[in-house]
């Protein structure tokens, strides 16, 4: 017994009154190609199979869909109406199938990093990151100091030398350690006294940066040294002062992470070593980082890169300040 009660198994209201789908496929090909023969070739069917499918569709709908003239066929007005609907439905099905076969790629993470750290430490290591984590799309942007996550930034690497936004989650990366650096051949001229002991010469040109104007005073205080004024040169950006040291223009105060590659290659030397200045770098995020998430893997990788060669893995992250 049939019923019109919606939801029951044999309800007429719950059954789609669709034409045969295989016939619709044959019809679409024939209408697009204006030929039953070519439609058959496209679908790997015979001319007769296409003709029978179209005739069955016309009988189902109760109206002719084609005008048959010699070896060609032309759509009737009803055929044009049906073709528009069929093409729209097929396009939607095709788009959905494509999406299911190729799921959307994960959203790109935008990581803001202080410019000098970005250029001298992070970018040189990014090929290794993408090789190890090809599934984590990452976009790097340069930025220093205060920021807001509403500016399209997902993560940021910053030193804790300014107040952070409320509710910012901070994950420690590494402590800052600073020291003077220069070209190897100049170290003996600028950092040795008459007895051969390490001593900063008054004749040593000191390179300053406008963005870290107190770097030399801070290092001298940490070392307990008093140095009379000498030859100095100020650069607009911290990166420029480090490049000036590479070029042999003088001694620059440098964080170890920013010059470690130059030290390992022998391009620069640090005659007095490095001393912690009490600050540190952190990975900042608007929300807590879930374990085993892409962000957690990025955090682990960043900490690994901050370790000196041959160092043991970190047992635990340091707490945020």
TrEMBL record:
It holds the Pfam family LysR_substrate. One of its GO terms (molecular function) is sequence-specific DNA binding. InterPro entries: LysR-type_TF_proteobact-type, LysR_HTH_N, LysR_subst-bd, WH-like_DNA-bd_sf, WH_DNA-bd_sf. Keywords: DNA-binding, Transcription, Transcription regulation. One of its GO terms (biological process) is DNA-templated transcription. Residues 19-76 form the HTH lysR-type domain. PROSITE patterns: HTH_LYSR (PS50931). Belongs to the LysR transcriptional regulatory family. This is LysR family transcriptional regulator.
């Amino acid at each position: 017994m049939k019923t019109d009660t919606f939801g029951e198994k044999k309800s007429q209201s719950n059954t789609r009154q669709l034409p045969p789908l295989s016939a619709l496929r044959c019809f679409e090909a024939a209408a697009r190609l204006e030929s039953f023969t070519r439609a058959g070739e496209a679908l790997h069917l015979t001319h007769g199979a296409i003709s029978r499918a179209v005739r069955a569709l016309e009988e189902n709908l109760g109206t002719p869909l084609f005008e048959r003239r010699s070896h060609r066929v032309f759509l009737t007005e009803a055929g044009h109406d049906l073709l528009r609907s069929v093409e729209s439905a097929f396009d939607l099905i095709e788009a959905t199938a494509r999406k299911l076969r190729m799921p959307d790629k994960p959203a790109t993470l935008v990581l803001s990093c202080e410019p000098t750290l970005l250029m001298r430490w992070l970018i040189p290591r990014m090929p290794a990151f993408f090789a190890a984590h090809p599934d984590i799309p990452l976009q790097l942007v340069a930025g220093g100091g205060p920021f807001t996550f509403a500016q399209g930034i997902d993560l940021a690497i910053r030193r804790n030398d300014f107040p952070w936004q409320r509710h910012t989650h901070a994950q420690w990366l590494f402590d800052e350690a600073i020291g003077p650096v220069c070209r190897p051949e100049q170290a003996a001229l600028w950092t040795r006294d008459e007895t051969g002991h390490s001593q900063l010469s008054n004749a040593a040109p000191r390179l300053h940066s406008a963005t870290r104007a107190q770097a030399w005073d801070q290092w001298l205080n940490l070392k307990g040294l008093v140095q009379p004024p000498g030859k100095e040169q100020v650069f607009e950006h911290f990166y420029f002062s480090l490049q000036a040291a590479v070029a042999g223009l003088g001694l620059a105060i440098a964080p170890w992470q920013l010059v470690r590659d130059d030290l390992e290659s022998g391009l620069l030397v640090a005659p007095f070593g490095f001393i912690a200045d009490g600050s540190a770098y952190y990975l900042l995020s608007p929300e807590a980082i879930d374990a085993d998430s892409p962000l957690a893997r990025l955090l682990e990788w960043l900490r690994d890169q901050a370790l000196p060669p041959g160092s043991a893995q970190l047992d635990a992250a340091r707490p945020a300040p």
